[in-house]
Design goal:
Layout (H helix, E strand, L loop, with lengths): L3 H80 L8 H16 L4 H11 L6 H12 L2 H4 L2 E2 L7 E2 L4 H14 L5 H13 L1 H19 L6
Parallel strand pairs: 1-2
Helix pairs in contact: 1-3, 3-6, 4-6, 4-7
Protein name: DUF4806 domain-containing protein
Organism: Folsomia candida (Springtail)
């Protein structure tokens, strides 16, 4: 027969071994969990740093593109001013001369002058069609010159429509700013701004007149 005390001791040893195995498994599990957590955090850290690096590179590319666009813009401005006229134009002869330059470029199959003119005029921007048209026209010519024109030449004024290459350049410039703009709507806006050019001149003169009245002496009257 087996000694009961020996059996108890054996069971205790077996229980102790089992407990050691359980403890070992738990410790191994904790170590693996810790390692997994560490590698997971490390992986996330690397991914975050890569995301930041990608964002920084994209930002650098955007900055470089902006600088390149500015340089291209400056180059185009230099070309148009040297090849054509300084804008805005202030007299009729130069405006007709610009029309002739654009027409000549078209006949020679060299539309670069026209494209540069459109680029220059479109650089003024604008959020609405009427605003963009006004900015393009004031970039092209002064209010004093606009006051000498109407679109079809009524009331003794010159006809702006007789300058088809300039009209086309204005329309193309506005369309490059407002892509959905229609040619007829742009023409209506041109008519409007040419029509009110004299009133804009009057508004410009009023402050000067008021200033002259305030500063005049009694002997001046």
């Amino acid at each position: 027969m087996h000694d009961p005390r020996e059996m108890v001791r054996k069971r205790r040893r077996d229980a102790s071994h089992a407990s050691e195995k359980v403890r070992s498994v738990k410790e191994q599990s904790v170590i693996e969990s810790t390692n997994n957590l560490y590698f997971s955090e490390f992986e996330n850290s690397v991914i975050n740093k890569l995301d930041l690096l990608v964002a920084a590179v994209a930002n650098l590319q955007d900055s470089m593109q902006i600088l390149m666009n500015r340089q291209a813009n400056q180059n185009h401005r230099v070309v148009i001013k040297s090849a054509l006229f300084d804008l805005p134009i202030s007299n009729v002869d130069e405006l007709i001369g610009l029309e002739s330059e654009l027409k000549l470029g078209e006949k020679k199959s060299k539309p670069s002058d026209g494209s540069l003119a459109v680029f220059e005029l479109a650089s003024v921007g604008g959020e609405r069609l009427t605003e963009a048209t006004h900015r393009v026209l004031t970039c092209l010519m002064t209010d004093e010159l606009m006051a000498k024109y109407s679109f079809v030449g009524r009331k003794g004024k010159r006809a702006f429509c007789d300058l088809p290459f300039l009209v086309s350049s204005v329309i193309r410039a506005v369309r490059s700013i407002i892509s959905e703009a229609k040619g007829r709507d742009i023409e209506d806006a041109i008519k409007y701004w040419l029509q009110i050019a004299p009133s804009r001149l009057e508004k410009k003169k009023k402050p000067c007149s008021n200033h002259a009245v305030r500063n005049s002496s009694p002997t001046d009257s």
